[in-house]
Structure formats: structure tokens, C-alpha cells
Amino acid sequence: MVHDQGSAEVGFIYLSTTKDFMDGIMFQSVRGVPTRTVARAVVSLNKTHTQQRPFSDHPFRLGIGHLNRKTTPDLSVMASKADDVKGEMLEPSVANKPLVRFAALAAIVAASAKATGFLTVKSIGFIHMMAFGAWFGTLVWTSFIFGLVAFKTLARQTFGKLQSKLFPKYFALTGAAPGLMLATLHYLAGGAPPVTEVRLLAISVACAVANLLVAEPAATSVMFERYALENAEGERDEGRIAALKKMFGKWHGISSLLNLVVLVCAVGHAYYLGGQLSFM
What is the pTM (predicted TM-score) of this model? Predict the structure, then answer.
């Protein structure tokens, strides 16, 4: 039984034995593990270890006080096992539904453009900037934040499986955005866009498409073949695993280089856009 105390993640666990209903024990949840998960894990362990054992011998007999890592088992491990269940995490709220999000964005765009005609220069400029923002933000977030944090946090195979789902969408977006920007730039420049910017955006499209259609599928295929050998029962084919590791490194290096080129082009176009700003 758990009573949440707001955002403090503090609560009470009531443990029971075959004969006794013990008093509440105040505890603080392990960092990064929700209170309810810790409680569920502790109660689960309690049921396993309290059969026919008096309260005086119970491993969680600490009296009223704070649980800490020095006097308890690794609750984070137990919690992860307790969370290994199937089922939806939660029922998505209305604001999280794609249709609602699209409607909200469409409404604000319509309200902002109410006084202007359809596809005016300002409207096309707005589309260009929105495409650039999505493009540049996705590149920076994936390359410098999410990828590094996920790599350091997740198990190697779990990280690889996650990236195999994300990368196709990532490369599709980082290829489609500059493609759209090429069209809007052509319109905004009256059919004569700056040559340098056209080259930067065109190179970005080419590199993203090469990643989407060639490098990423090749790297993912090699990665999953390696995983299959590593997880196979019996003696492992270390020679083949080493060869696959080397092959994956090659494709991963090519993919990373292509992504770096896209990022450099994005920064170059950002510099150009910054030069076009004028509030006078």
C-alpha cells in the first residue's frame, strides 16, 4: 500500500507476514525509480522471503526510519524486474493525439495568416523557417543529446534496436526538410536563389537519402546478424562476430560522415538566414 506525497516521491510501505500486519516504514525511493515501482518491488520480495518467518528476522525490519542503499538490496534491479510487464503505459491524453496537434498548429497558422492572401511571400517564408527549425533541431538533438545519452544509458543491443526504429524516420525527415526548403527558397528568390544555398540544401538531401536507402539499412542488417550470433545458444562463432563488428563499424562510419555533412550544411544555411534578418 502506497501513499504518494506529491512530487517528493515519499510514501509508506506496509509489509505483511503470515501472522502479522506490520507498521508502516517510511522510505525514500531510489533515484530514477518511481515510488510505486519501488513499493511494488519491495512488497513482491517481502512475499517471497516472509513465509513462516517472524517479523524479528525479516530483512526489511528497520523500524521507523529511512531505507538506504547500505541496509537494503538493490531496489533498482528489483524495480526493473517488477516493471517488466506487458500493457500500455497510460491512456494518451487528448493533447497527445496527432490529429489534435495538427488541428492546433493549423488553427494558429490560419489565425496568423488571416489578413494575408493565400501563399503570400510571408506564408512561404514561414514554411521555410518552420522546415529549417524542424531540420536543424532534429539534427542537433539526435547528434549531440539523445544519441549520446541513450548510448551511455541503454544496454548495447537495446540501444541498437531502438536506433534501428528511429533512424529511418530521422533520415527521412532530415532529407525531406531541405528538399522542401529548396522549393520555398526558389519561390522566395523569384526563381533565382543563391547558388551556395542551393548547393548546401541539395547536398543535404543527397546525403540524407544515401543514409536512408543505403548506409542505414546495411548497418542495421549487419547489426542484427551480429546480435543473432551473440544470442545463439551453444558455442559462439567469435570469428564471424568479429568480422561483423568490423563491417558494422565501416557502415556506421559512413553513416556518421554523411550525417556530419548534413549538419555542416544546416549550419551554413543558418548563417545565411541570420544574415537575412532585419528589424529596421
Answer: 0.65
